[in-house]
User: Fold these one by one.
Assistant:
Number 1:
Amino acid sequence: MSIQIEIRPERDFLKVVATGKFSLKEAERTFLEILDALILQQVRKTFIDGRSLVGKPATIERFCYGKFAANSVKLYHERGLYPFTKFAYVLIPPVLDPQRFGETVAVNRGMRIKVFDNPEDALAWLDLAPVQQPDAAAGRN
């Protein structure tokens, strides 16, 4: 089983839902699809929901993916990708690494990426959290 992604352009970001079994080759392939979509849609934020992914990436795979993602982002700048594009991943264990090793590898190479275990925190980091409306009754006397 490979990784499938559904890419949906939203108003201010790209929403990606990933399903399937993790493999490094598939993760790299789908990441390039995401970069192409970012250029096409001309957005600067990406929300990647990988909670349906299964598998247990090895430490070396986490390293390789983080390095690949960061290097790919740099290469895609020449093709029109915004240099400071933000990537928020939502994952669950064991795909989610509690030490966030892959995230650290990518950040150390200049990528703006953060991994979360819930969508609310990911959306907040992207500055996309729903705005709380003040209670209409609170302003009445």
Number 2:
Amino acid sequence: MQARPEFSRPFVIDRLGFGAVTETLRANPEERVRLAKRMGLVSLDGFAATVRLQRDLNTGFIHVSGRLEGDVVQTCILTLAAFPTHVEDSFETEFSSDAAEIGDEITLDMENEPPEPIIDGVIDLGELVSQYLSLALDPYPRAPGAALDPSWVETDRQATSPFAALKNLKARN
């Protein structure tokens, strides 16, 4: 049994005709708390996205594009202080009902990514934008003004062994 996503907005693809459909998504407070926990954030104070879906009449793929924004509070990797930041990103991907039938066969094509599978005629737009939010987050967040202690930065580029670094540390003490 698969766990339910923290932010789920199922879109039934039968709703999609020949024209484009635009959906606006907003996470409620409970969903934001669960997403913050999943992504290792102090908090997620706002999260919204606009998603556009359109069927490609030639391939049958469903092209999904959109824009997301969120107000997050992250922990600085240098000071461990919590600090707020605003995240904005755009994304696009394709879905296909046939992608679910590919199974274990994997072909790497650096030019074109394979379409995402459509499961049981549904695309979960909430989970999709949640994944793109996690990709938009800085994996090494630094609070404004936070900097490495200069003594931690190697200034001698000629030091070739760990013992040279230890010698420098001993000389400072």
Number 3:
Amino acid sequence: MHNLALLEESYKKFMKEVANWAPESIIDVNLELLHEFDLLHFHGKPPHEPSLTRYFQVVESSEKITLVNDDFVVWIVPERTEDTALTYTLVSINDHDQPHLELVFVTSGVYNTSRLVLRVLEKFLYEIQENEEMLKRIRKED
């Protein structure tokens, strides 16, 4: 079982200054990103690794949805600013001692659908997992 109190503490810390914690600033989901991820085709190819988004413990609250597995912690946070609905998605590597924030992306307008948020999340999870595996191989070679 995951330490939900620790995850909640990490979430609050990250959201308090999300722009400062995000390693590459906040990524805006737009047409260019969807094209880069090859998500513009209605009959798209199956995802690289469907198991990435299958095996998560889901914790829902009125504020957010938290997805947790042995590798990742993901917080999906809907917000409303003036007339605009936004969804922030924070993706962390689950270090068990302390989650390590890897990236934050935001969807709004026509891009703010649950299906699209999950498809973009899956692409980012795949990229992070690939990078982590490459880093492990490099460390072994040293």
